[in-house]
Structures are given as C-alpha cells and as structure tokens.
Write a structure and sequence with these properties.
By secondary structure, this protein is an alpha+beta fold. The protein folds into two domains: about 1-200 and about 345-400, FAD/NAD(P)-binding domain (3-Layer(bba) Sandwich); about 205-340, Elongation Factor Tu (Ef-tu), domain 3. It is built from 13 helices and 21 strands. The chain has helices spanning about 10-25, 40-45, 70-75, 80-90, 110-120, 185-190, 210-215, 250-255, 275-285, 290-295, 300-310, 320-330, 390-400; strands at about 1-10, 30, 50-55, 60, 95, 100-105, 125, 130-135, 155, 160-170, 195-200, 205, 225-230, 235-245, 245-250, 265-270, 335, 340, 350-355, 370-375, 380-385. Strands 1, 2, 7, 8, 9, 10 and 20 form a seven-stranded mixed sheet that branches. Strands 17-16-13-14-15-12-18 form a seven-stranded antiparallel sheet. It has a three-stranded antiparallel sheet with strand order 3-6-5. A hairpin with a 3-residue loop joins strand 14 (about 235-245) and strand 15. The longest helix has 14 residues, at about 390-400. The model has no long low-confidence stretch (mean pLDDT about 95).
C-alpha cells in the first residue's frame, strides 16, 4: 500500500496531523498499536478532557532546547482555533479556572471530533497495528525533488507493509504505561541519528523521604494552598498541594515536578497570603504560642504534625529572634527534598524526548532526515498542567500536517 503520509500513533497529535494533511488532499494512513484510538484523550480531565488553555504561550512549556521553539506552531494554530472547531461540532464546554477549557459532558466528544474530522479528510486508520520495522528507502536522485511523491519510507507492521513519502511519529511518551505507552518514538529517533533528551516523569506526585514520611504520612488527604517552585529559575505556581500516604501531590506539586530533578528540593510557601514574620512579631508581644497564630491560617492536623519538630510549646516572647526567623522561614520557604517521584504510572506527561534542536520549528521535520517528522509528547516539549499539552498536540500536529 502506497500513501503520501504515514502517521505513527492515533492519539491527539497524530489524529490532528492526519486530519490536517488529509484536508490538503494528501493520502494519509494512521497506524495505532492499541485496539482503539485516543486512550489518553478518554481519561484526560477526569473524563471531561481539558482540551486547551486560552492563555497558552511559549512560557507555559518546559524544554531543554530553545524556549522559542514552540512559538511558531502555537502562533499558527491557537487555542481559539481549536475552540472554534469544538463549537463547530456542537460540543458544549466551560472554563474551569486559569483559562482551562473542559467538555461539559465527556472526553469521548473530543475523540469523536477527531475521528469525524479524519473521516471527512478521507484518512485511513488501522488500529491494532504493531510496527515491526521502519526503513528509509533509497530514492533515485532524479526523483528526489520537492514535487516528487516517490516513497521514502517503508513501514512493516502486523497488518502488512506500507510505503509513504512522509513519516510522522506521534507515538507519545512513557506516561500511563497501562494505556500502551512505549519508548518506540525515542528509539526510532536515535536509530536515525537524532538526539533524545533523557525522558523522565512530568506532572507527577513527589514522594517523601523516610523522615518526612514519619512526620507527615498521617496527613494523607489534607490540602493546603501554597506557592511552589523547584528552583530559583523555575516558575512559581500558586495552587493547592495535597498530602498523600506516600508524599505530596496536587496541582502545585505536579507543576513544580516538571522542573524538578532528583536530588533537588522544592521550595514551598505554606502561608502565601500573609507575612509569617509580621504575624510572629505581633503575637510575640501578646505572649501567644505559635499554634494559636497558625490556627486561622492552616488546618489543625497540619499544625499538630508541624509543631512536633518546628514549634516549641512555649510563648513566642520567650524565643530568641533567630528562632522566630527560623520558624517563619520553615513555613514561608519549606525546602522539601523529595525521596523521589511516583514514576510513569502516575505521571500525566513525559519530560524530555526528541531534542528540539533536531527539528524545524516550522514543520517539525528532522533536520538530518528529510521526510521524518516528530510531533506531540514524543518531542522535548512539555506543557504545564491545565490544557497546555493538548494545545501542543493540536499545534504541532497542525504544523507537520500543513507541510507533509
């Protein structure tokens, strides 16, 4: 079978790329290894799919390459563009918070949108298609012109052999292995000489050290608003953190985790609405204890656990200034050093992937291997929590689909 474009991966980026290329008159074949399309789409957003974020900019993405890499694709396919498509399909939506857009009903509606768009674009889709080999064909020099449609690629699968002029890899990352995630895309990139930034879990809960587990493990289920940052150069996120039986989770921690690396600390301000130093100075003059100062600000269960190691049970007026400053520091800049993270089974995305320096920001095509494109999560571009990763899927899929 000979087509213009083969897309490997039937997720958000792959289907959107296929649809975009198909609407340009390209013959497109999507190969998906799972028995059904869009597994991650279906579970996203608690089953309602946080399908974009209206405020998406380059600042909302993590990459070890140039921070400008995502600008071209994001500018050419915006959140408003995808929202218009959602509305054209009659899907009711709402903004939850911070620009996050969700379906009113079900994630299934976004997958159905993509399937309908692909059908309209006459895209062929084969599910349950296990790829056994990818080979670049040696085309005669005379036919190797921009206008040529001679096949460059041969893809062998469990459902037969297929040839295409362009090959788009949208195989995703390593998060949610139970949904069929594999390192296929990284291995293919390395096989053709492209650099791959070492993948690691992103938007992932962080685990306690043994000492912190002993102190805070009993707080499982407790939520506290905070400011979280993994290091001085990383963004600070104001969201809730959630104590779990193994560590810390919640939006603030998930966001910071994409910037965090093993061995580093995460800085947490647990009282973001107040100056603890000012409160302690005032309470000191009144002869109060720390627990009474904190009760209006933090949950009682947290105060009890925190006080065991940080809060002496005597009036603040009896404490030297240095000790008061240390108490304030412990709440305003808690240097939480995780024991690790919960790994890919609990990670929403993968940080790392095919290096952006290897790809054209305009077409997502390999600079080394003509006709080979990488899009979506397989690329070293990771969005923040809140619809940004879906917007990268749409934008990168559109960018590649506009040129293949």
């Amino acid at each position: 079978m000979h087509v213009d474009v083969i897309v490997i991966g039937g997720g958000a980026a792959g289907l959107f790329c296929a649809r975009t290329a198909g609407l340009r008159g390209r013959q497109v074949l999507v190969l998906e290894r799972n028995p059904r399309l869009g597994n991650k789409i279906l579970i996203s957003g608690g089953g309602r799919c946080n399908f974009t974020n209206v405020g998406a900019t380059a600042a909302n993405y993590v990459t070890q390459g140039s921070p400008h890499f995502v600008k071209s694709a994001l500018a050419r396919y915006t959140p408003q563009d995808f929202l218009a498509l959602v509305e054209r399909h009659g899907i009711a939506w709402h903004e939850k918070k911070l620009g996050q857009l969700f379906c009113d009903q079900s994630s299934k509606q976004i997958l159905q949108l993509l399937e309908d768009e692909c059908a309209d674009a006459q895209v062929q889709i084969k599910v349950g298609s296990i790829i056994t080999n990818v080979e670049r064909l040696a085309a005669p020099e005379a036919s190797e012109t921009p206008e040529s449609r001679d096949p460059r690629w041969r893809v062998s699968t469990s459902q037969g052999e297929f040839r295409a002029r362009s090959l788009v890899v949208a195989s995703g990352g390593l998060s949610f292995p139970k949904l069929g995630a594999t390192p296929f895309g990284y291995e293919l990139a390395q096989r053709f000489g492209l650099q791959v930034i070492n993948p690691r879990p992103g938007l992932v809960p962080l685990t306690f050290s043994s000492a912190d587990l002993a102190q805070f493990g009993e707080l499982s289920g407790l939520s506290v608003e905070c400011l979280a940052s993994s290091h001085d150069d990383a963004p600070t996120f104001r969201e809730n953190l959630l104590f779990t039986h193994r560590g810390l989770s919640g939006p603030a921690i998930l966001q910071a985790s994409s910037y965090w690396k093993a061995g580093e600390s995460v800085r947490l301000n647990l009282v973001p609405n107040h100056s603890v130093r000012d409160l302690l100075d005032s309470a000191r003059r009144g002869g109060r204890e720390l627990k009474s100062v904190l009760r209006p600000l933090l949950p009682e269960r947290f105060i009890v656990a925190w006080s065991k190691s940080h809060a002496p049970s005597r009036p603040l007026g009896q404490l030297p200034q240095k000790e008061l400053e240390a108490l304030a520091q412990s709440l305003e800049a808690w240097e939480f050093k995780p024991g690790g993270d919960e790994g890919y089974p609990k990670a929403e995305v993968t940080v790392g992937g095919v290096a952006t320096a290897e790809l054209s920001s305009k077409t997502l095509e390999s600079r080394r291997v003509p006709g080979l494109h990488f899009i979506g999560e397989v690329v070293d571009v990771t969005g923040w929590l809140g619809g940004y990763n879906f917007q990268w899927a749409w934008a990168s899929g559109h960018a590649a689909g506009s040129f293949v």
